[in-house]
Design brief:
Elements (H helix, E strand, L loop, with lengths): L1 H4 L4 E5 L3 H4 E11 L3 H8 L3 E2 L4 E5 L2 E5 L2 E2 L16 E4 L2 H12 L4 E9 L5 E10 L2 H23 L1
Antiparallel strand pairs: 1-8, 2-7, 2-9, 3-6, 4-5, 5-7, 8-9
Length: 156
């Protein structure tokens, strides 16, 4: 909760569908390598991480298919909208992620992209396992029941 009180903390993009499609086992805060025009574009809030995912390739962690809108004032010094962006993690965390993806069949799903209290762009990555259709139905039924329970308690 301390992050929301800080004036520099700002959510840029959120993958709200991730918690519906996956069981999030754990999450991890990672840094991201960006160009100057990408940071300027993110300050205006023009990005999307809903269709993106992370992958461990050649001993490095990459964000694939993350969208950051072009910054018009950058001119010829702009950036590619959907380029692969390197994510920054420690070697220990990288080996843990590699094992989770390789051995346990997990997926690395971006959950939230935000500016932290120091004004740096961070990405919260979820280590997740995919849900089956029946699991999604059960989650939705539980959420509906909780909502109905709250209404009944409010009325009574």
């Amino acid at each position: 909760m301390a992050e929301e009180q800080n004036p520099n903390y700002k959510v840029i993009a959120e993958n709200r569908r991730a918690r519906f499609d996956y069981f999030i086992e754990s999450d991890l805060e990672v840094g991201i390598v960006l160009a100057g025009s990408e940071v300027k574009s993110l300050r205006t809030g023009q990005s999307n991480i809903a269709e993106s995912y992370a992958s461990v390739e050649d001993g490095e962690l990459w964000l694939i298919n993350g969208y950051i809108a072009p910054y018009t004032q950058a001119g010829v010094f702009g950036h590619e909208e959907r380029r692969r962006r390197k994510l920054l993690v420690s070697k220990r965390e990288l080996s843990r992620l590699w094992q989770a993806v390789g051995r346990e069949g997990m997926t690395l799903v971006p959950l939230v992209m935000y500016f932290n209290h120091r004004g740096r762009v961070k990405l919260k990555l979820g280590i997740a396992k995919g849900k089956k259709v029946a699991d999604k139905r059960a989650t939705e039924a539980k959420r509906d029941w909780d909502r109905q329970k709250q209404r009944l308690l409010k009325q009574g």
